[in-house]
Design a protein that fits this description.
Blueprint: H1 17-26, H2 30-34, H3 84-111, H4 117-143, H5 156-160, H6 167-195, H7 199-227, H8 233-239, H9 256-261, H10 266-273, H11 280-290, H12 321-327, H13 330-338, H14 350-353, H15 362-370, E1 387-390, H16 395-400, H17 409-427, E2 438-439, E3 453-456, H18 461-470, E4 473-474, H19 481-488, H20 490-497, E5 508-510, H21 513-520, E6 528-531, E7 541-544, H22 551-561, E8 566-570, E9 573-584, E10 590-592, E11 596-600, E12 606-611, H23 619-638, E13 643-653, E14 661-669, H24 676-679
Parallel strand pairs: 1-2, 1-3, 3-4
Antiparallel strand pairs: 5-8, 6-7, 6-8, 9-10, 9-11, 9-13, 11-12, 13-14
Helix pairs in contact: 1-3, 3-4, 3-6, 4-7, 6-7, 10-11
């Protein structure tokens, strides 16, 4: 169904509150949306439809005056707000957010008819307040020379909220999530507008912020009432519709004072800010003690826990002796991490640093492929403490069906070949598995690795069971199966990528077969790439040519859609593949290694890795990759993941003759990756350790 089609549901009886909600969503009359008819008496039981059925409306009616687009406009810089047209465009975006919020509060009334009547009444009142906010935004942007509907709009909220399966998930996402994030956004933009000399616009945003405090408080009360327990961060995060995470439902720095007024306690705010880790109570007390009373700024003192992203520290352009010494000492690394010292090797040449205009030309990309690389960093292969490894390269297959998973002969054969490559790299001193380490699999006898530290390619239940049977001791706590499934699912990457700066094309998430078919029949110069929810090494993906799917492609889509959401993106001509490895620590610190170039087969299976040398990346690409890796680390930590991870990126052409561009985030692998040994290699190190290393908060 298109976004402009009326929802295919039987309308409620006329004169009821439910009919008022239905009409607000369904109407294609812009005037009726902006100024709906009088609302029936909410306190009168006769105003409510009795024994109402579930009505889960898939999309709102959209007037012809509202042109819906698939991409959001880029957020302008603070300095650009001195121009009235830029402020007007921002208010146009905010106005459409308010319309969606009003519609979706009405959607909650219709979708969850068995919820308490008082919750329904409250949702309708919130919808009316959202329409008031919409009117305020429209009035001010009219003074700035823009009318609602002059620009395209995006129905992002509508793409996500209907995935809520019950009233608890609804208030968790809309009330505590979207409305909560608006506490940060409205406060930040109010400051920006006032700084640009627009006091009237700032006053509108401050009014919205005050009202949103009540909306968040309403959601908190109902979340607690529906769950029967005080609001808890983990309980809230678990109720968010997948693949959404708390990281996507907040602004930084947090608007601490406003969130406290909404009834959110410091333990919850500490976790939301990113300082919770595995010691939430301790982190909460540290965070609260060091929180700045100014709600527009949130930083910790020297040595204090600091929220993710709350402070920006400039990166040095080159590796210094001081940073090298820090990387070689665990104690120094921990001290430096506490002090917020950010270090990372520069892999740009001096000439490349001057290039801030964008990506290199196609000729530069082609020439680089034939250029000599820097010699690979190597590990010291002298005796070291052996590690017991489970190299479960089929981890994504297990995550797709964990309860009934058993590796096939084909997957076992693929795993054997990949293990041989890893061992060969280790023998050459450029791998993460070194001579003397022990490989654990089904053939390992019980107790065969007793006394050794155990690690896994991905700590799935099967891998952990093999290590336990072999008697190995885990190197540290492993993420839960639910967390591993969430962060390794391809929709997790697609959702995070939509918020990254410079994302060159959109990955779309198709929740069912009809949505997938609608997407892949759109025009695309080179066709489409469709990925299943889980997959790796070229598995679980299919390229579709331009035009309607063939019978074979349709059968594949049908079978794949049964396994979960599909991720669909345009097929492009990949010129060069790049990977970046990192680690998320137990307190949220993020270590990022230098990028590597990787070679793969035509189907996407890994065949080799080389570390990027000086001058191989221009400054803009370096910055985009670093930003993508850091944002990935933050998102993983917010989702409950700690441990090694990697991101895949690539340089590409969208069609023949088009300029080369960088896609800085193609895939997230929340596990070890093949490039890790090369990326983290240090001369003379007993074990792969970060060089360069970059702790962030």
């Amino acid at each position: 169904m298109s976004a402009t089609s009326p929802p295919p549901a039987v309308p409620p009886p006329c004169g009821t509150v439910q009919r008022w909600c239905f009409d607000l969503i369904a109407t294609r009359d812009l005037g009726a949306k902006l100024a709906p008819p009088p609302l029936p008496d909410l306190a009168d039981d006769a105003s409510w439809e009795q024994d109402a059925p579930v009505r889960r409306i898939a999309a709102p009616g959209r007037p012809d005056a509202l042109r819906v687009t698939a991409r959001s406009p880029k957020t302008p810089s603070r300095g650009s707000l001195v121009r009235a047209e830029v402020r007007a465009r921002l208010f146009h975006t905010f106005a459409h957010h308010e319309l969606q919020a009003a519609e979706l509060f009405c959607w909650g009334v219709l979708a969850f008819p068995d919820a308490p009547r008082e919750l329904h009444r409250g949702l309708v009142r919130l919808a009316l307040e959202e329409l008031e906010h919409l009117a305020l935004y429209r009035a001010h942007m009219g003074e700035l020379g823009l009318a609602y509907g002059d620009l395209a709009v995006r129905d992002w909220f509508w793409q996500r909220v209907p995935s809520a399966t019950d009233a608890i998930g609804f208030v968790a996402f809309v009330g505590l999530g979207l409305e909560g994030a608006n506490l940060e956004h409205s406060a930040r933009f109010a400051e920006w507008f006032r700084g640009a000399g627009d006091a009237a616009g700032a006053a509108v945003l401050e009014r919205v912020e005050r009202d949103e405090v009540g909306h968040v408080a309403f959601a908190r009360r109902w979340f607690e009432q529906l769950t029967g327990a005080p609001l808890d961060f983990d309980a809230w995060a678990d109720r968010l519709p997948r693949p959404l995470t708390p990281m996507l439902l907040r602004g930084l720095p947090l608007n601490v004072e406003a969130r406290r007024r909404a009834g959110l306690d410091d333990a919850f705010l500490a976790r939301l800010a990113g300082t919770g880790g595995v010691e939430a109570a301790s982190a909460a007390s540290n965070w609260a003690a060091n929180a700045d009373p100014n709600p527009d700024r949130l930083t910790g003192g020297r040595g204090a826990s600091r929220p993710v992203g709350a402070e920006k520290v400039a990166l040095p352009e080159t590796v210094t002796e001081e940073s090298t010494d820090s990387a070689e000492s665990d104690d120094a690394a921990r001290d430096s991490a506490r002090d917020g010292d950010l270090r990372r090797e520069s892999f740009r040449s001096d000439s490349a640093r001057q290039d801030t205009a964008g990506s290199p030309t196609v000729d530069a990309v082609t020439a680089r492929k034939g250029a000599a690389r820097s010699s690979p960093a190597r590990f010291d292969t002298t005796p070291h403490a052996p590690i017991a490894w489970v190299l479960n390269f089929d981890a994504e297959e297990e995550l797709a069906a964990p309860r009934r998973y058993a590796p096939t002969d084909r997957l076992l054969a693929i795993g054997e070949r990949q293990t041989e490559r890893v061992l060969a790299d280790g023998a050459r001193g450029i791998g993460f598995v070194l001579p003397g380490d022990v490989i654990v699999d089904e053939r390992t006898p019980p107790g065969g690795a007793r006394g050794l530290v155990g690690r896994a390619w991905c700590p799935t239940p099967r891998a952990l069971a093999l290590l336990e049977r072999a008697g190995a001791t885990l190197a540290g706590p492993a993420p839960s199966l639910d967390v591993l499934r969430r962060v390794n699912a391809r929709p997790f990457t697609a959702d995070l990528r939509a918020h990254l700066e410079g994302a060159p094309f959109e990955k779309r998430i198709a929740g069912d077969l009809d949505e997938a078919l609608a997407l892949v029949t759109r025009p695309a110069p080179l066709g489409w790439l469709v990925r299943r929810t889980f997959g790796a090494a070229g598995r679980g993906r299919l390229r579709l040519g331009p035009g309607p799917p063939t019978e074979h492609e349709r059968r594949w889509l049908i079978a794949s859609a049964r396994r979960g959401p599909l991720v669909i993106e345009p097929w492009v001509d990949v010129l060069e593949e790049i990977t970046v490895s990192g680690t998320v620590g137990e307190r949220g610190e993020i270590v990022v290694a230098a990028p590597c170039f990787q070679a793969t087969t035509s189907r996407g299976a890994w065949t080799g890795t080389e570390r990027a040398g000086a001058g191989d990346l221009v400054r803009r690409d370096d910055d985009l990759l670093l930003s993508a890796c850091e944002e990935t680390g933050r998102a993983l930590f917010a989702a409950g993941f700690t441990g090694p991870f990697g991101i895949d990126a690539f340089r590409y052409r969208s069609e023949p003759g088009a300029p080369a561009r960088l896609n800085a985030l193609s895939e997230i692998n929340a596990r070890l990756t093949m490039d890790r040994g090369v990326a983290f290699a240090r001369e003379g190190a007993e074990r792969p350790r970060p060089s360069p290393w970059k702790p962030t908060r």
